[in-house]
Amino acid sequence: MLASLTPLTSMYRLRSESLRKAYSKHLLADSLRRSDLELLPSVSGCKTDPRSASSHSVSCWGFQSRWAAVLSSACQFRSAGNTRRQTETRVQIILSLPDWELSRRRQLFDRVREENPDFHQKIVPISSELTQPGLSISAADVERLTACVNIVFHCAATIRFDEPLNSKLSANKHSETLNFSSPTQSHSCSTFTSSTHLVPSLSLSLSCRHALQLNVIATQQLLSLAQQMHHLEAFIHISTAYANCNRKHIDEIIYPPPVAPKKLIESVEWMDDGIVRDITPRLIGDRPNTYTYTKALAECVVQQEQDKLNIGIIRPSIVGASWQEPFPGWIDNFNGPSGVFIAAGKGILRTMRANNDAVADLIPVDVVINLTLAAGWYTAVHRPKTALVYNCTTGNINPFHWGEIEHHVMSSFKRNPLEQAFRRPNANITSNYLINQYWILVSHKIPAFIYDLFLRLCGQKPQMMRIFNRLHKAIHLLEYFSNQDWEWNSENMSMLMGQLTPEDRKTFNFDVRQLNWPEYIENYCIGTKKYVLNEDMSDIPAARQHLRKLRNIRYTFNTLLVVFIWRVFIARSQMARNIWYFVVSLCFKFLSYFRASSTLTN
Known about the structure:
Oligomer: single chain
Strand content: 5-15%
Structural class: alpha/beta
Shape: elongated
Number of helices: 20
Helix content: 40-55%
């Protein structure tokens, strides 16, 4: 059965400020981190009098309290059919029903559920298609959206690094919008948010979601719809800090595109897949993949409408687990660094090509959310004449390096090990290609071959070589980013922080100077264990016992290997025996000298 992609957009008027805060920030968190199925929401608010948005005295939280929250999300369905009914069912399950399989995702909405248990009943799905003219939304639904929406948060994008530039989407791919509007609301205003993926994924699935169509054409479609919205105050586009990764210093400006988006789209329309595949390397030039290339084009598309719309662009770097909200370490997928951390914690990933001294520009998901919400407020209230770009990064403000990540991740997983680890956690990061290939052979391929041989002897299907091959392909896609440094200007991010009141700075905290990296990495690793792998923290003693067994197996194997080498090679050669005795005697002399030196010192 074919998978289909269904973005959802929702509007929901919230009367409680505390409920609105929990709802808006937590749903947007789910939007920015989810990418594998069902619901991917993001949120803002809705005010009753759009004309008052020009008042510069309105605080960010005051602005939020006057707007009804809006949800935009994305769903995947396994097959075509009644997508509206399927959407309603999935939304109800994710937000309300007590299904233990969805418990990890539902924790995100616990606070909202406690304060308003029936809030999910106000969700109304609207079927649409992001790649079709007018988004294929019915006239009645277009009228509802154009009459109510105040802010658009556009997060939808394909995040596969190796996505082809062209391909027609399958007929069963749908987008949907969810309206969170009160049934008693006569003329409410809200926001529209499109969101699919934000973080680069390690998934290598053969999907029909393609970079040019969803990163560029879909952006054009949403801009076209946004221009029809009578009460629109701001259009916030989520890009990536790596859209201009071909530059070492990246300012908060929109750089000229490598090619005019309109011309590229027109050209690709008449080319077959083979031609596009052949010219793709020349098109992307010094960029590493189609993801960064098309995100740069999308920024240009958004900029072209800055005379008609109030526009803001958010550029997050590598989005990781939450820092503070909804709780430290919240994460529920394998995207970005999460999959790498889990592979290292399981003992599968033993080596990675990265520069230990290079900055690993991680950004917590709740920091991105808080900055996005604050940017929506600033754009709507202050109405900048040109599109403001916010580089949402940590490297220049609170740097953290790949070598430090290796140390803290390994230390964390040794204290809080994952269950049923393949080997003891111990990863080696090196920037040297030959050393990396040596460790891949010794620590990846040979153990995988031995394990698969053992599985064959037991009558089971071999799997480790296949797993390692997929892991190597995924890690290879990240090498460009883990071996280089970039310098991002973050003046607009600092400016926005200065515009917030002291209370708003606490509510919408995106001050990464306060981020304690060792504590964050510890919570991140625990989050992958609890929320991604669904492992119970009470089982840590058993997991530690499993690591001790793996250690004993390793010691036994090494001992047997030494005995084997001795019997086969050293015992049969006089020269080898002489060399062996010389090395052993040298070691004993060194130990004797060391002991004598210690005695004299004492």
